[in-house]
Amino acid sequence: MIHFAVLFAALIVLVNSVSFAGTICPDGSYVGGDSCQICPDGSYVSGGAGCAITPKGSYVPARPGGPRIAPDGSYVPGGADTTICPDGSYVGE
Fold this sequence. Notes:
Elements: H1 2-17, E1 23-24, E2 30-31, E3 36-38, E4 44-46, E5 51-53, E6 59-61, E7 68-69, E8 75-76, E9 82-84, E10 90-92
Antiparallel strand pairs: 1-2, 3-4, 5-6, 7-8, 9-10
């Protein structure tokens, strides 16, 4: 019985330590950071920095270095790590 309790406790710690990048916004999209900000086209970026338009016409958070391309061809903010979200999209953290 003690082995079951140890295994269960380890499982709880593992589940609580797993985290996914991004915050889900009202439209179902993910953004890096902990808040959502709406841009002129109705899309969301992580809050606080404003919106920067990309060469494709989409928006990312305004940051120094401008938008940069992610592995899937989408754009993320410059100067940030690129992280994959549960839905397969990329965000800049």
